[in-house]
């Protein structure tokens, strides 16, 4: 826990200063579980809150996951600094159509999105580590403030410092958090109509039941006047999907194997990367890409004091990436309390961007 001290608070407007002082009054510095530190570049429109996921959570999730058969590790652990860089490289691959298709949809329809949502909102982006796509929306939406949330502290810090320079008029309240665990606004964020932005089909990395639960927590966060703008990868010919997760230059394989490297570095483990290979297949029945790490020989792995045996061919399931038709996804979002406002799809039916509004007031 890092205590907030008044000298750590960076403020630009009188409003922001008053919010920060009220916060100290209300909670007292002792009770704060946020780290609100001056960024190295000393931006005066950037707040950085660190509600960092601890190593022990990572350790217990990995140990539990490797104890199961088939073994599995939650995909959120891909995103250490190296994993985040590899993911950024994936988004530039010719086979990975998702990112460029979604960007084109957002660019082509930015004015219409702004027309629906209006200006002066509080724009919240769970998983907005690289802040890449939000650029497209900022000029049209002119939000009062932007709240990106991401598990990778370094990635978020670098991206928000750059964003704060490019958009000096924008208040940024960055929060380093595992948003699948804590979906809360940082206390310095201003009030306003809330718009959650969840691009990149990250929703596909949740199993459908968990996706409904997660969307419900977004509905509770944005409340009855709030919106959700979300990018969702669509069902399509499986050869296109297969290529997107088995790229020719092997970046996706490196991204998958980096999970083992991360466990070695952070949890004192001894995975030999040459003993594992990347595998990605489309499971048509479940409507999802599955990524696995396949053991290439019989081997024993040590993680601290724990030992795990893997036979040759045994796998660690590292990710699911669900694909949805537009109707399937609207139904799923309805279960979380949203109603469809607008929908945009590219000409090749590869990717969809949905705008939803909360239809029922959800009990907190
Ligand atoms: C972040 N997420 C939406 C990506 C996906 O396509 O499921 C992660 C990824 N895994 C392999 N390639 C990209």
List the quaternary state of the chains. single chain
Count of β-strands: 14
How does the major sheet shape up? Answer: 8 strands, mixed
What is the percent of helical residues?
A: 25-40%
The CATH topology of the largest domain, please? Rossmann fold
- Cα radius of gyration in angstroms: 21 Å
- Using the 3D structure, state the CATH architecture of the largest domain: 3-Layer(aba) Sandwich
| Contiguous uncertain segments of 5+ residues | 1-14, 28-41
Overall mean pLDDT stands at 88
CATH superfamily of the largest domain: Vaccinia Virus protein VP39
Order of helices and strands: HEHEHHEHEHEEHEHHEEEEEHEE
Q: What global shape is seen?
A: globular
Total number of distinct structural domains: 2
Strand order of the largest sheet: 1-5-4-3-6-7-14-13
């Amino acid at each position: 826990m890092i205590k907030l001290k008044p000298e750590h608070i960076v403020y630009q407007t009188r409003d922001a200063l008053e919010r920060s002082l009220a916060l100290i009054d209300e909670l007292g510095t002792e009770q704060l579980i946020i780290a609100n530190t001056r960024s190295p570049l000393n931006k005066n429109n950037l707040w950085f809150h660190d509600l960092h996921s601890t190593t022990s959570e990572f350790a217990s999730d990995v140990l539990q996951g490797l104890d199961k058969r088939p073994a599995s590790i939650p995909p959120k652990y891909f995103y250490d600094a190296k994993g985040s860089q590899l993911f950024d490289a994936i988004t530039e691959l010719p086979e990975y159509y998702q990112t460029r298709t979604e960007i084109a949809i957002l660019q082509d329809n930015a004015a219409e999105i702004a027309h629906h949502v209006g200006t002066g909102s509080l724009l919240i982006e769970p998983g907005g580590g690289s802040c890449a796509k939000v650029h497209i929306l900022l000029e049209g939406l002119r939000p009062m403030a932007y709240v990106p949330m991401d598990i990778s502290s370094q990635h978020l810090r670098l991206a928000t410092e750059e964003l704060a320079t490019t958009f000096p008029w924008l208040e940024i309240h960055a929060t380093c958090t595992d948003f699948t665990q804590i979906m809360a606004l940082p206390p310095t964020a201003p009030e306003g109509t809330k718009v959650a932005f969840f691009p990149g089909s990250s929703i596909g990395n949740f199993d459908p039941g968990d996706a409904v639960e997660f969307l419900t927590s977004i509905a509770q966060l944005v409340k009855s006047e709030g919106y959700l703008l979300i990018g969702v990868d669509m069902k399509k010919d499986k050869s296109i999907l297969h290529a997107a997760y088995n790229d020719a230059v092997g970046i996706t394989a490196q991204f998958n194997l980096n999970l083992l490297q991360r466990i070695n570095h952070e949890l004192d483990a001894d995975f030999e990367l040459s003993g594992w290979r990347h595998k990605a297949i489309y499971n048509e029945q479940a409507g999802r890409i599955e990524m696995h790490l396949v053991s290439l020989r019989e081997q024993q792995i040590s993680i601290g004091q724990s030992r795990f045996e893997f036979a040759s061919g045994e796998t660690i399931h590292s990710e699911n990436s669900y694909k949805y038709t537009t109707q399937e996804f609207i139904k799923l979002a309805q279960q979380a309390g949203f109603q469809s406002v607008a929908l945009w799809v590219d000409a090749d039916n590869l990717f969809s961007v949905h705008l939803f509004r909360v239809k029922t007031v959800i009990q907190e």
